[in-house]
Amino acid sequence: MEVRKALTAAMLIAAAALLLPLAPDPRWVIVMSSAAIAYGVLSPLIAARKLYFLAGASPHAALLAAVLAISLSRTTAVSEYLWALLLGTLLIYVVGYMINRGVDPDAATAAFVAFTASSSVMALYFVLTNFPMETDIWAYIVGDPLLVSWSDAYYAAGIAMAVLLAALLTRREQVCIGVDRDYARLTGINVDLYDLLMFTLIAVTTIGLIRIVGFVLEHVLILLPAAFATSVAGSSREAIYLSVGASLVASLLGLGLAMATNTAPAGATGLILFTAYMVGLLSRRLRG
Q1: Of 63, 164, 207, 209, whose Cβ has the fewest other Cβ atoms within 10 Å?
Q2: Are 184 and 176 in contact (CB under 8 A)?
């Protein structure tokens, strides 16, 4: 375990050293690192809770909420970020409530994705035809951390720290619920409360950071760090360390690679994470 931690730290230092001459704006480093921390710490909890279906559907809610927030923020005094978080969290709560009420998770997710995808198309058309000069919809689709302001950087860092703190403080309970939900209830864990917290963390992470990583790559970044970590980790704690470490390394290297090759940072990050996952999977199979 200590060897893996040391290796992860060494990789992170090497990635940062590579990045420094390539990313002159510290805002880029802040937002990419913030996204890596948020997704990296949340991904193992999603795997432990077996919430892949909800995590896969959450970017659809994030896109719809972000697009609706554009028009709502133009007609009210409420900020675009706040509207997006309110609407997106409500959408995630709805599908979570359906599942908790006994609806089959696959059926609930299918209905949810159908609704949000259709609504997103309508919302995108409305925004593009009514706010063509004010809004960069493309950033919500593919992600563009190079367009962020300092307020965006502080916002992303705040989300990352909040998600990190909540995830670390509730890791044991979330893992216990994922292993045996009924046993967790018998031990006195308030399962419904932890469900609500988990839904909130997923909503805040996907909705709050969609402009940085984009709708397309959120599917990868919310699931792949845990897939890599669990392929080589020996415990839930180690899985979180490796997941966050891999996400940070991939994000920093992805940003550096994007600067060097004039490509999308989010896309480069996703490919590096995928490569790490394949290497981890191969090493696990070779170990037998």
Answers
A1: 164
A2: yes
